[in-house]
Structure formats: structure tokens, C-alpha cells
Amino acid sequence: MTPVSALTLTAKVTLIDRTGTRVTAGSLAEAMSLIAGRSHQSTPVLALAMRHESDSSFEPGRWALDAGQLAPAPVSEVADYLLEYTDWQLVDAAGRLSPVTTTATLESVGQAVATKAGHEVTIASDLPGVLPHKYTPASNAVQRIEQEGRGFADAHDDAALVASRWVPHVDEDMPTLLHEEHPVSTAQAFATRTQTRRQLLAPARRGWQGTINYALGLSLAPGAAERHTRSLHTTIQQGLAGHRTAVVVNIKGGASKTTATYLLGATLGRIRGGMILAWDNNENSGNLADRALSAAHSHTALDLLERIEDFTTPEHADQLAGYVRPQGDNKFHVLASQNEAGNKEVIDASAFRMMHTALRQFYGLAIVDTGNASTAPTWQAAIDVADVLVIAISNKEDAARRAFTTIDALRNQGYADKLTNAVAIVTQPRTASPQRLQDITDTLTGLVRAVEVIPFDRALDDGGQINWEALSADTRQAYLRATAHVIEGM
Fold first, then answer.
1. Angle at 9 between CA 49 and CA 387, to 5 degrees
2. Domain extents for the chain?
3. How far is CA 487 from CA 118, 265, 367, in A?
4. CATH class of the domain comprising 240-488
5. Which domain of life is it from (predicted)?
6. Is residue 112 exposed (0-12), middle (13-18) or buried (19+ Cβ within 10 Å)?
7. Which residues pair with 121 in a beta bridge?
8. Each residue of 364-384: pLDDT tens digit?
9. With left for phi above 0 and alpha for psi between -120 and 50, is residue 258 left, alpha or beta?
């Protein structure tokens, strides 16, 4: 009798609401919990994202979420959320997971599983719209497996054997599950290409090698420090497929959030160029405008909100200059928060999303500064749209404690996946505790993707307007590394 493996397919679920906001959950249950936690005027309706509707392994439809349970909904219903699946995993009968490292269709995934197993495989899933399928191995693959003496007919626990054959950590010699290369468009490959060795080893312009090259007209290769700096520049300058947003957080005031926001924007502007926006999204009154170069106007995000309908299309792009503040040689723009007195209505979540949707047409990158309340709707809206989170921490006891409180809040609100892609920027005060710095970095290990320590800088200590030329070389280099970490996460 031909053996059959029964496997279950799971995935991360990204929810896309009507504003285009994307929130990723680790499972279907977690995604349903996120939807249930939001307020809705009627029963929310879900549908598949377009990329899945065109795949024959899916059955497009509409589902209504009622009391935590999904039920069929009329196809005429307008979807409140689109479901997008990524990071597929196969679960065997013993409950063991195998990651599916492929960008191909589910049909090719199932076929490859059956072919590698050498026998029929059934794959089912509880994900809405994913069709159960039975796959038969390609005949030539079966013959090859039998010739090599690797048939599965005598296996006592066939499903477990199939899983153990592919789970990477079981045996380093075993092949990774379904590792397939999916063709990338030539345009994307060119836009995201890395620096060639010739560019990396172009004649030195810095250090003693650069001095000699300039004085004597030689072409000495750059030293290790300059090559590293060039590599960081290449990372920061790499092409990105569409708008990206980084959001800087710490519910403690005075934790260097605003400084980090400004200097990430300045580094991006000077190294990458293009349209870069630093946006003060404080739920009360932020001070990004105080640290920035002034403009010929005093308009804030509230003033822009009153005219946001004018910017739903690019035709009024020239009028944005009346609402943002250009930052000279730093080559980015600042959007100030509400007025200092805070006597106007605070921008709420829907207003933030509306503005973000409009502004992303004009800016390729945005760095969003946030306030000090993780429960504020505008704070949560910013986290929703973030491609990369930046945890700003000052090496002070209270700021460090509140930073980890912020991390706990993010995890509790369903943003654990964004935390694993986060970058922590730890700023050293005038008198810094080396032991506490070690404790901070040790605790961050495994919580975030990268940690960068910024040295103390007298030019930033008084909280006044930030002058790039006054910064120390060490501070600029640290922010160069931090900015590269942020771009890597995008």
C-alpha cells in the first residue's frame, strides 16, 4: 500500500485594512484576536489579498468574523480586511514544524514535498481560502529515490520521517525544506544591487592613504575603516520597493527619541538623498521643530491635516513646502507636531493614517517621532504603519526601565514580529554607567535585531537646535551604522 503523509500548512497572517495599514500576526488566531480587539460598526468582513486570489491553490471568498469565529459572507460584501499569508510552515503529525523557504506557489510547494518524500502527500490548512490538496511525486523522482535505497514504504511513522527529513536543525547535512529560487524582476535586481568590489576598492579619499592620493596623485586603495564606511553608504543607498516608514519609540520623555529621529533623517538625507520626512507625531506637543532649522512659516501637522484632501493626489506637491520645514544641507523635511500650547484637537488614529497615506506619495522614507503614551490611538496608528521600529534608549536608569516597559507594551499589543526586526539606539549621557550599558545591551539581545550605541556628544547635550557640522566624527559614524541597520530592516 502506498504510504501517505498528512501535513498541515500554517503561516504568518498580515491584515490590511481599508486605509492600507498592515499589521502582521504570528497565526490566524492572533490575527482574529487583533480584529476582535478593534471597534467596528458592523461585523468585520475578510477577504484574500490580490496576490492569493490569482493562485489556483486558493479559493477566493468573503468571511465574516463573529464572536471570534469565521463564517461565509456574501461575496458582494466589501472587505474590511484583506488576508495576506507569508512565512509558510508545514506541521507533521507529531507537531513538528518545517519552514517552507520558498516564494513559489502553494501548488509547487505541495508537489516538491511529495517528490522529496517519494510518495503521496496531503496538505490541509485552517487558513481561510487555502484549499486542501493531495500531491503525487513526479515519477522520475520516485525512481531515483528507490535506486538510492531511500524509499519510505517500510517507515513506521511516515509523517514524522518526512518532517525529520527536512527540518534544518535535525541534521546539518539534510537539505533545507523546499529551498527554491524564484525569479526576481530585472528592474528590481538592478535597483537593489550591491556595490561591486571595484567601487569598494576605488582610490582612498580618507585617512593617510587619501592624503597621499590627493597630494601625489596616486591611487592607493582605501584602508579598512574607509571600506567599512563605504559599505555602510551602500547599504543606506540601496533601492527600496516603495515607501518605507521607521517609527521611533520610548514612552519615557527625554530618552533621545527626537534626537534619534532628527539624526536618522539627516543621515538619510546626506547619504541617500531623495524625499525624506521626519514627522513629529507626539500626541501632545513634541519638540522636533525646536531641534530643527526654522522655516518661513509656523505651520504644523494640524494645519496640514486641515488641507490634507488637497494632497490625496500628487498635483499639489509644490504646496507641501508651506507645511514642512526644509533642513538645508541635511536634505530632509520636518513636519512639526501641534502647537506648543497644545490647545488644539490632538490628531487621532484615523487622521494619522489619512495623512500617512497622502504623504507616502511624496516621500520615499519617513521617520516618525512618537509621544509618551502607548495607549494613545495616534501612537498605535504609527506602530501599525511601521516597517521598522527604533527603540530609543538613554543610558539612564529611568529611561532604560521605560524602554523595556515600551517593549513589553509592544509585545502585549501584538507587535512581537515588529520587535524582532527593531533597532535599538542607546545614547550615552555625560556620565554613563558602563555596567548599566552592558546590562541594557545584554537584555536587548534576542529582543531586537540590532543595537547601536551613540557616544556622548557635547553638541547634543543642551537640547537646542541640532547642528550636523558640530557633531563629533564618532557620533556621525555611530548614526551611519544605526541608519544602515534601519535600512537593512526595510
1. 45
2. 4-166, 186-230, 240-488
3. 42, 12, 11
4. alpha beta
5. Bacteria
6. buried
7. 5, 135
8. 999 999 888 777 888 888 998
9. alpha
